[in-house]
Amino acid sequence: MTLSFKSHRSNLDGIYAALFAASEVIYGELKKGSGLKFATSSNESGDDQIELDVIADEAFFETLSKDKYVRYVVSEERPNMEKISDGPYSVALDPLDGSKSALVGIPSGAIFGIWKDAETAKDFHGGNIISGGFFVFGMNLEAYFADGENVYKGLFNQATSEWSIMPIEGGLPSANVLSLNACNQTMWEDWMQDYYANLFKDADGHPAPHNMRWYASMVSDIKRLVLQGGMFAYPAANRKGYEQGHLRLVYEAIPMSFLVHAMGGASTNGDCSLLEAPVTTLHQKTPVFIGEKDKIAAVEAAKAGN
Length: 306
Fold this sequence. Notes:
By secondary structure, this protein is α+β, with helices and mostly antiparallel strands. The protein contains seven helices and 17 strands. 27% of the residues lie in helices and 28% in strands. The protein has an eight-stranded mixed sheet, sandwiched between helices. A five-stranded mixed sheet has the order 12-11-13-17-15, sandwiched between helices. The chain is globular. The termini are far apart.
């Protein structure tokens, strides 16, 4: 692997190298068709695992455990923080996001965030994150991430094993597109049902179309958002396991929000920014809305009854 990227923060280059190296391993296994069947286990959130979930988790842990600046590693696939060293940074991961989608050929990926000064679960809040982003395991191996306020896209050249890292400039695009799993819509809170119904009406209340996209793979949906604009949403629902949302705050919602905020976008759980939401446990769930500022403001206004 050749990764020429240099972080704006000291002692992060080795952590990026570890993350990118692990992504290559996972992508290589996925291309071979390895691990694309259900395992006999579930993760800490109670989701059934496929074998590649475990392969991905081990790949990230192996590379990150070699860096002396990594204090803790947090993973969806592990119950607790894993102590690596007394270094200043900690990494939280969804090692294989969209694993069920990978079974049917939809691009999956991995989500990562890097925090400073994290010693307990509550320290993995949005005020301490300094880098966040994701890899996409699709036709190509790609990375989208924010290093502080700077946003980048990475593309892996399989022929030369080199990464090209390019800045993403111009901010978040704008599009009238919503990425949303609507299977729970009859079990959403009333305000969310009203908000959703009003998307399909014009200013005079007449029926109108609204572009809807849903991959069931957060990395693929956020990639669309980064490249085209719009909003990604996964609300809470009156359904067992979804009462507080379905996505995890620490290693899914916060890293993705950090990236989109760096592009000029916004996020909310309905009441406050996901970067301001308090963290109580490593695997806590949250409602998630990430996207253009005006769309996020409209969600918060709808919940507030304005």
